[in-house]
């Protein structure tokens, strides 16, 4: 066994052991006595926000991934919410790979309401998971749903370099994606499942520049023209991740045959897989799923069975949410989600 392989095995064992050790500590009814009704509070604020702007829902779903996927055994600790300070000017949210993260104000609103109800009891890390769950339910019309295991502490460490190292980049090849997910003990199937979240949300043109020159076998020429036109409109514009949420005028000018498939509002479903097979997905990392046999098979599987994807996406979010701070790590219940209770890292 090579040293690199041995190290990879050790990492996977550590991740698996951490998952088993904390699973017993987390529970569905964790706040039943200490803060009864907390989930109703979160649900109310998420529903209100999505009624005003459904894009807030996609931002919440993205937050759970960008929080939980950073650092080998750190897991979901709300480190992505911490603002830069003079002592730590480069927190995770400043990392280039975290460009476009949003819904921070909504998390602040939820945290303030929860603090008013139960001061110093509910962690920001748990609020992120609750909010992502509720956003998934609302965006999918109830098809994606799961019980949240709670009891996490908020972390005190947040480094842009960790996010840049650990999060998968939109430019990754399939081999890089598989290695990246394997480090967190996620399978190729789970890589494909979680990629389906690109059915909602937006992306920055700086994250999809390679698609503007990709050959026709990788991207539908009409969609490439649509993206090129949008990305020429400013320094770094945003475009919908899902072509079904595009501006009808832009679609009419580039891929008019797709007009009947446009949606009136964002919806979390299996449309991502249909789009991928039609070569009309936004990022290189999306198209890369078609270049490996097992991944491609799962893309076909979820394109054919939306109900299966709803169930598997729910399970994948649960797995993603299970790692809180490792044993003996320093954690706390933050008073405010954007800063640690003391300003020392």
TrEMBL record:
Q: Main location per UniProt? A: secreted
Signal peptide segment? 1-24
Which residue pairs form cystines in this protein?
35-118, 68-76, 124-337, 205-231
> Which residues does the annotation list for site: Transition state stabilizer?
62
Annotated residues that bind Ca(2+) 2 are located at 247, 269
**Entry similarity comment:** Belongs to the peroxidase family. Classical plant (class III) peroxidase subfamily.
SUPFAM superfamilies linked to this entry: Heme-dependent peroxidases
- This entry's Enzyme Commission designation comes to 1.11.1.7
Q: What does this protein do?
A: Removal of H(2)O(2), oxidation of toxic reductants, biosynthesis and degradation of lignin, suberization, auxin catabolism, response to environmental stresses such as wounding, pathogen attack and oxidative stress. These functions might be dependent on each isozyme/isoform in each plant tissue.
| Residues engaged in binding heme b | 198
Identify the GO cellular component terms for this protein.
extracellular region
Q: Tell me where in or outside the cell this protein is found.
A: Secreted
Catalytic activity line of the entry = 2 a phenolic donor + H2O2 = 2 a phenolic radical donor + 2 H2O
Q: Which domain of life is it from?
A: Eukaryota
What's this protein's name?
Peroxidase
Q: Name one Pfam family in it.
A: peroxidase
Domain Plant heme peroxidase family profile span(s) in chain numbering:
25-341
User: How many and how are cofactors bound here?
Assistant: Binds 2 calcium ions per subunit. Binds 1 heme b (iron(II)-protoporphyrin IX) group per subunit.
